[in-house]
Write a structure and sequence with these properties.
Elements (H helix, E strand, L loop, with lengths): L2 H15 L3 H10 L4 H10 L8 H16 L5 H16 L6 H4 L8 H10 L15 H8 L1 H4 L11 H17 L22 H4 L4 H14 L6 H24 L6 H30 L1
Helix pairs in contact: 1-2, 2-4, 5-10, 10-12, 10-13, 12-13, 12-14, 13-14
């Protein structure tokens, strides 16, 4: 890459960034991999005349997505949809070990493929974070819907809330939530000084799931399997869960969380009853 090419790239950045640091940052990261080809793509992409700064930024995001994800296989579409969609709707950023539990993301190679494709818009590290809120806005609005048809399910909030509810409940049903969390000598934590090192023994996913499972649950009406998981937690893991919430200093939220779970379960039962009676009427 000669000096002339560098000078042309710098001139392009100055001319098109219009003072937007996030635009220049995104382009700089986009040019890190195969810079000459990516710079050619930037130069030759279509520009909308009179576009404002955010339209220009969304146009750049479209270019990044189209360049990174093309000719996708069905499993790749499923994995990208899961990871990007869940990253938008999660309450806290999730790390690689959690993302690999999502549908279609069974191994580190798949996750690496996705993160490499998003390298221009995500922070480096094992926790997936978008550099700027504008990329989330882009993903959820019209410019993205005109980008790659196969990835439109990224905008399906119901799908991703369901995935997050399943993730949380699967975690709580599993052995990750167990008796005597943090190996406390007493079964009661009242007046017990819990060292920070002991609290850190609760994994980020168990902590996330324990605090936020109903936030995702109430946004989905998918019933049978989730209902069974909720019942298992209530009958088999209730005391373990309450203890984790106490250790985390969140015991005051237990009542509100249980209320949400109860309201959701009543709604599911009601919908199932309506569906059943409607089926009987149609059959009759």
């Amino acid at each position: 890459m000669g000096d002339a090419w560098v000078n042309e790239a710098l001139d392009y950045l100055v001319l098109h960034s219009a003072g937007m640091f996030i635009w220049a940052t995104t382009v700089a990261h986009f040019l890190q991999e195969n810079p000459e080809r990516h710079f050619y793509i930037l130069k030759t992409r279509e520009h909308k005349r009179g576009a404002d700064r955010f339209e220009e930024l969304y146009s750049l995001y479209s270019t990044v997505i189209r360049t990174s994800f093309h000719s996708l296989e069905e499993e790749e579409i499923k994995a990208i949809t899961s990871v990007v969609g869940v990253t938008i709707f999660t309450k806290q950023p999730l790390d690689d070990t959690v993302l690999m539990r999502l549908p279609g993301v069974e191994d580190p190679h798949t996750l690496k493929f996705i993160k490499n494709g998003l390298i221009s818009v995500i922070d480096s590290g094992s926790t997936l974070r978008f550099y700027h809120r504008s990329f989330e806005d882009f993903l959820l609005h019209l410019p993205f819907s005109q980008c790659i048809d196969e990835l439109l399910a990224i905008q399906d909030r119901d799908l991703h809330e369901h995935q997050l509810a399943v993730l949380c409940l699967n975690t709580m049903v599993s052995s990750e939530l167990h008796f005597n969390m943090c190996d406390l000598k007493s079964s009661s934590i009242k007046n017990v000084d819990i060292p920070t090192t002991d609290i850190s023994a609760i994994s980020p996913l168990v902590s996330y799931s324990s605090q936020l499972w109903t936030d995702h649950l109430v946004r989905t009406q998918h019933g049978e399997n989730l209902m069974k998981a909720v019942e298992f937690v209530m009958y088999e893991k209730l005391l373990f869960w309450i203890k984790v919430m106490s250790i985390l200093g969140k015991a005051h939220k237990v009542s509100a969380i249980l209320k949400k779970a109860l309201e959701w379960s009543k709604l599911v039962v009601c919908l199932e009853f309506i569906s059943y009676t409607t089926t009987l009427r149609l059959a009759g």
